[in-house]
Amino acid sequence: MATSSTPPSSDPQTFTTMDKDLDAIGSHCQHPYCNVLDFLPFRCESCKGTFCLDHRTETGHKCPRAGEWAAARRKAASLSPTTNQSSGGKPTLLTATQCSHPSCKTYINTLNSVGVGCETCNRQYCLKHRLQEDHACSTLIPIGARQSSFGPTQAEKAKAALGRLRMWGKEKQAAVLPKPKPSTAATRVLAVNALKKNAKGDAKVPVEKRVYLYVEAEKNTTSSKLPKGEYWFNKEWSVGRMLDAAAKNLQVENLNNRGGGEEERLRIFHVEAGRLLEFSEKAGDVCVSGNTIVLLRGVGPAA
User: Fold this and answer.
1) What pTM was estimated for this model as a whole?
2) Matching InterPro entries, A to Z (predicted)?
3) Cα angle at 220 between 217 and 223, to 5 degrees?
4) pLDDT at 259 (0 to 100)
């Protein structure tokens, strides 16, 4: 290699004449007994040492932390979400997911439809809704984000919502249930009979297993195309399944199976009991014909 002391040649050269001292360029190999000055040194990602061409590998310099870089890379790969994973054949629960856009039913991560991850809201979308303006990204709270950065925590919101619900539930009970009178039982029987006559539901549910309920969607916490209705459900169903059917009947947007946060989740408020129902409870154990249930969104866990 030519140095600053080398006189310039009139022939074309494949290198540039350096004006600086050679010792200021490159780094010395850190391998014991080598210490050679390398102008293009290599950095070991496991021990963070600097080595020459001959000792650049973990084996070459007998790395004291051999394998750490490879292990860290494997761990990062297993934790990172796959945004463009594809699988052949018909989509299943194991090979496909649904686009995170509320109104989109496209299955993504399949052979025919890839999924695109949004780095801002941490959700996956189909190609049609991949752009931020197409899925209203600015209005979404990123999945995994700290709630304190976006206002009150979910626990605080749930506590405030439940306090409001209890007051609202007492007023609702007074309107739904007849006042205590000698004819209270007879009045309730007549009301239940009228409910059974007008109610709708799955015709496959046997009559003896039906529980007839008034169903409403509270306007302050959710929106629906039908504000209320009268329906029957199977006593053997879980509250979660009853909620899915009620939301479908009232045409309420149901995001419970999309894996979103609590602020998007629907829950059932039992007016007569004055509490939120757990998804795992059985409908026939917590409700009797003539009760009223209300669909609410973002009110926190039942407990």
Assistant:
1) 0.42
2) AN1-like_Znf, UBL_ZFAND1-like, Znf_AN1
3) 50
4) 65
